[in-house]
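In keeping with the milestone schedule agreed at the kick-off meeting, the structural modelling team has produced records for the first pair of proteins. Each record is given below as a sequence line and a structure-token line. The laboratory manager (R.T.) confirmed that both were archived under the project's standard naming scheme.
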Amino acid sequence: MKKSLQIGGAYVGIIVGAGFASGQEIVLYFTSYGFKGIYGALLAMIGFSIVGMCVAQVSSRLHTTSHKDLIYQISGNFVGFLLDLILSLFLFGVAVIMFAGAGATFQQMFGLPIWLGSICMVILTVATVMLDVKNIINIIALATPYLLTIVSIIAIYAIATMDLTFVEQAVIAQQAQISGNSWWVTALLYMSFNVGVSFSLLTVMCGSIRNDKVAGMGGIIGGILLGALILLINFSLLAKMNIIVGLDIPMLALANEIHPIVGLLMTFSLLGMIYNTAVGMLYSFMVRFIKPNRGSFRVAVIIIGGLGFLASLVGFTTLVAKLYAVMGYVGLILIIFIISAWFKSGTKKIVYYKKGN
């Protein structure tokens, strides 16, 4: 059970980046739909749990060491090549965005130069990526209970002090809606996009787990925790929609409204989530090309980290951010192949056991 909780915590830690923890993504994909956003959050929870379980168990059964091992097996050479290329670019791109996000957070909260915050995050990320995968899982998983605690405090405060009823707040929320998609389409795209974010590290983490039931339970636990976080943040923002409309970091605004200390704790939480995502993305990117036990791995990590820092300074993040829209649909393709592979690998495992008996 301990290993499953670690996998579940790491699953959450990979996905919950700056956009999620700040509340920006939740407003866009859920809160802006009013009460239907709650249904969307529940749908996303179910999706995260099912797909997380499938990725974890298939990776465990196939003993994967990078996303390449799994992608080519489940989708064939041609489609596998395209998915591998897009995922690899996406991993590096998201890491760069996290470096830039750390710089922006440092500047906004502490008045420090953007480059200083970015380089601090790069150094911390590079140092962590040089550890073995078990240590990385433990580090990423640690931030999840901390974030759950902070978000729960903000949710209780927001609901207890709301000025309008939920019905009135829902009307304001729907007026701020940008997407023209239905609530369920948006929820599915959000889930599939984040499957793309977490897919690579999940395959690495769970490929080293020899018990596929333990790995699968980790995926389910992570999905439930993600859904719980979405619901908590969604209720917090919906309760204060008349105040947070148009704000860049709505959860930080609510935290500061409680007390500056809570705001500071939320800032550390944001930085922790940025760090988690940066580590997950950079590690997954590196093991796609170089095995971590090779002598050249550490040198390559330092070089790629340096390139990521430079990219974060020259506005590369704007270019890479365009991949986010593409990844929602790429994630849907991945999900179809993953679920199909889960059924196939499960059947083969049953046949194998029958022959063994």
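The second protein of the pair:
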Amino acid sequence: MPHVDLKFITRNLTEIQQNAISDDIIAVLKKHFGSSDDSVSIKLNEIPADDWKSAVYEPIIKPDLDVLIKKPGYKLD
């Protein structure tokens, strides 16, 4: 039962765009995990650019840099 909590800088996505992202994420989870539509939950979190460092980078990304399977190409020190 995968749950995806996606954080990204605010883009003011429309409902159509949000649904397209959801459909694409579900397709990947179905392919690689054998998940069903009913087993997946997704949360889209729009974070203002000015808050990225304090809300996402420092508490979530930076402490786990050594175990991330894809590291960011930036550092916010």
